[in-house]
Amino acid sequence: MPRKGVRPLILQHSRSGLIEGVVLGRNDDYEPDWHGRLKASLAYNRRLFEQAGIDYRVAFVEWNPPAGRPLLGPDLVARFPFLRAIVIDAMVHQRLCQAQNLSMMLNFPYNSALRTSAADYCLITSGDLFFGRALVAEIAKGLASGCLYRAERVNIRANLPFATATPLMIEDPDVIEQVDTCSEPPYNVPPYTNASGDFLMVDRATMTGLRGFDESVLNARLHLDSRFCVTAMAAQLDCRLLGRIFHINHGNSYRNRGSDYPGERYDHEDGLPYLNPPSWGLAEYAWLPLSERLWRVSLPETPGGVRLPADMAPAVAQAADRVTRRLAEIRRTLQPKRPAPGHVEVAATYSPVAFKAYPYWHGATVEPAPGQAATITTSRAPWGNSAILDLEGAVPETQDGTWRWVKLIIGQLSGEVAVSIVRGEDILVQTLSAESRHTLWLRTPPGSQAILVRNGEQAGPSRLEIESVELLSQASA
Hints:
The chain is α+β, with helices and mostly antiparallel strands. The protein is 20% helix and 30% strand. Strands 1, 2, 3, 4, 5, 6, 7, 8, 9, 10 and 11 form an 11-stranded mixed beta sheet that branches. The N terminus is likely disordered.
């Protein structure tokens, strides 16, 4: 149990509508004056919500603190009475992380704060951004349970005086450098996954039921946000775009670092929707109270710690359990990633040279290659459409639960390409490929109409050779 005189980890509140944002950080010189910008962001956002009559608080999680440097958490707790802090020992990072170039994980620190929140709404966000006035005004109109709330990220100049910033300064069109659009394909439909990790808000019961970010990813931090979005939608949440957030454009963001981003590559569309175990959020680790609103998390065998889960009203716990059960059932009924051993039929074959590149897909070409293969050169633009193959009519519904896949044999490849299944205007399944010769499997649900090849995330054309294309079927067990 906590020491006498130390308040519980859970923040209590006396009014409905409490929102708690979760912010991560460590004292590692991530960016010039990152600590100063963090404090400016915390004060600015709190003030904006206060002016709208909304109780906004923050859980700051300090992950893997560098040795020999002072902690950020104690200073933030002393400075901001609306903030609690969780310091997670470097030993926890060493036990969990499986990538040598990754010093800051996202899933476990975010989840530790989500698991211990008592807010009505939990917000996954960052410490280098400023909320827009229109977004806060929309929140002030009221929020609903069972809805994933998103925001469009606007990247602004890094040389502004953030400590004294005003909304007129932050939202000035002249300081905008780039917008991570949520109004253009393929990001203009729920759950608006473009740069989604800076604003993901869900009511506490639903967030607890979803169990936060995927804890099975131990070697990367990229795409954890989009995996959460897809899982939330699979759990039948609604989704609403609230407005804009204004993010300090810095050199370490993914949009600026690209392939140099920390962590390893992985198939971020595999295993969706995911479901964390009941121990999610470091619930079985040792939680030790350091002072009021300040906790330390260490290895489970550390003496003196208390165990989670945190207290929760019965009605909230029951609502969370319903979300978890629904998500577990949906996972059980989804298609496997590829056919199971057993009887598989070839429903259709397609000639790779039937891929078509439209003239307005600048620079994209489809050319015959030796045998029945085709060589596709993509457009130069990141994510630029480059070639499409009609599946000759939408894949039909079946009565027996038959599962279908498109199987592509990929030959020589240079650069990086995205290969997708398309239904109408929706990209249903997408795999990013940067390997040499291999087999690519794409789950193909009813209504699928085409295979789309696009350039990858980086500017400049890519080339790939497609040797064969088959539509396979297998009856479900």
